[in-house]
Design a protein that fits this description.
about 25% helix, about 140 residues, about 35% strand
């Protein structure tokens, strides 16, 4: 597969379609099983509170993975992402209810680079707080 977006058709400032991702306790347990990260702050409310957290929190890598989906969906090919990094700024707190939490992600083309690549800056929010800082991806376009 290759990116479905053509480099020549993209301009700096172009906004990617924003998305909202639900986060439930069940999703965290599934992610723990897949990743091998069974830290109790991600599934045990009592433990999370005892160590000073407001409640169970989502895995940082889970949050990071959800955010990049905005880019991979836009590009049309996960393999088009050649570089991706974030700074974890706030945790995604996941209450034990039927709703859980949400991660709202938006993105914007910040720069056109060499070799048909662009830098996309992402903004990831949960409960009105920015949960990822310096969230940037370099994407090779068609």
């Amino acid at each position: 597969m290759t990116a479905k977006i053509a480099y020549d058709d993209v301009e700096v400032g172009a906004e990617l379609p924003a998305q909202t991702f639900p986060v439930t306790r069940a999703a965290l347990v599934q992610y723990a099983g897949a990743s091998g990260d069974f830290n109790p702050i991600h599934w045990n409310e009592k433990f999370a509170v005892e160590v000073g957290l407001p409640d169970v929190i989502a895995h940082g890598m889970f949050t990071m993975a959800e955010a990049i989906r905005v880019v991979t969906d836009w590009a049309g090919d996960p393999g088009a992402v050649v570089e991706y990094g974030v700074r974890f700024t706030k945790p995604v707190v996941v209450p034990n209810d039927d709703k859980g939490a949400t991660i709202e992600v938006s993105g914007k083309v910040a720069a056109k680079l060499d070799d048909n690549t662009v830098r996309v800056d992402l903004t990831a929010m949960s409960a009105g707080q920015k949960v990822l800082g310096m969230s940037r991806a370099v994407v090779r376009l068609a």
